[in-house]
């Protein structure tokens, strides 16, 4: 598994990315750091996130997310192994990550879940608006290519983590970011 420096989990809020990341850390002999967008969003008061827009783009959120991406690059550049927990709801967020991580070995993993189960989880969590995951679902996985996918609708985080580890331990040729990077060029 040492050939994969970055396990990049992409999915909606409440899809189970954080729980899977923690299970991956517990099960793996590789000392992965769990890097998540939520930690960066927690650095600013929520009331400031939606306050400044230019041409329909939320400037504060955009700067925060771009900074998050550069922190991923910085951590990887000095040799850390990473599990990235992200909600790639904007096309330019994916492009930014693909371009920044060009020289790193990235396993791009789609974390999927049924809309009904997402809503149940949102209600149970209580810290996210109900319906946010459904809105993100339309954007997060739209025309995405992944190296591997897991579906958390009926599978536990530990089962999904074992599936991901099995995939990584099989020595796969990781191609999703390369394919998507080539697609961006045309």
Strand order, largest beta sheet: 2-5-1-6-7
Percentage of residues in strands: 15-25%
Give the fraction of residues assigned to helices.
Answer: 40-55%
The CATH fourth-level homologous superfamily: P-loop containing nucleotide triphosphate hydrolases
Rg value: 16 Å
Shape: globular
CATH class category name: Alpha Beta
Instruction: Assign the CATH topology.
Output: Rossmann fold
Q: Give the SSE order as H and E letters.
A: EHEHHEEHEHEHHEHH
Write down the domain tally.
1
Secondary structure tally, helices = 9
Mean pLDDT: 87
Q: Largest beta sheet, briefly?
A: 5 strands, parallel
Structural class: alpha/beta
> Which blocks of ≥5 consecutive residues have pLDDT under 50?
none
Structure description:
This protein is of the alpha/beta class and 186 residues long. The chain has one domain (6-185): P-loop containing nucleotide triphosphate hydrolases (Rossmann fold, 3-Layer(aba) Sandwich). It contains nine helices and seven strands; from the N terminus they run βαβααββαβαβααβαα. The protein has helices at 17-27, 37-41, 46-49, 59-77, 91-100, 115-125, 132-140, 157-169, 176-185, and strands at residues 6-10, 32-36, 53-54, 57-58, 81-86, 106-112, 148-151. The chain has a five-stranded parallel beta sheet with strand order 2-5-1-6-7, with helices on both faces. A two-stranded antiparallel sheet has the order 3-4. It starts with 5 loop residues before the first strand and ends with a helix. The model has no long low-confidence stretch (mean pLDDT 87).
């Amino acid at each position: 598994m040492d050939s994969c420096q970055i396990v990049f989990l992409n999915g909606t809020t409440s899809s189970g990315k954080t729980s899977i990341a923690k299970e991956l850390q517990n099960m793996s002999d590789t000392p992965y750091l769990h890097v998540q967008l939520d930690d960066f969003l927690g650095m600013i008061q929520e009331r400031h996130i939606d306050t400044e827009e230019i041409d329909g783009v939320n400037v504060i959120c955009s700067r925060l997310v771009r900074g998050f991406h550069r922190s991923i690059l910085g951590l990887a550049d000095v040799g850390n192994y990473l599990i990235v927990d992200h909600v790639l709801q904007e096309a330019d967020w994916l492009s930014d990550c693909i371009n920044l991580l060009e020289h790193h070995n990235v396993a791009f993993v789609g974390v999927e879940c049924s809309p009904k189960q997402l809503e149940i989880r949102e209600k149970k969590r209580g810290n996210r608006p109900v319906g946010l995951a459904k809105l993100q679902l339309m954007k997060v996985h739209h025309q995405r290519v992944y190296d591997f996918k897991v579906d958390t609708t009926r599978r536990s985080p530990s089962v999904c983590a074992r599936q991901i580890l099995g995939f990584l331990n099989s020595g796969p040729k990781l191609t999703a970011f390369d394919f998507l990077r080539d697609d961006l060029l045309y």
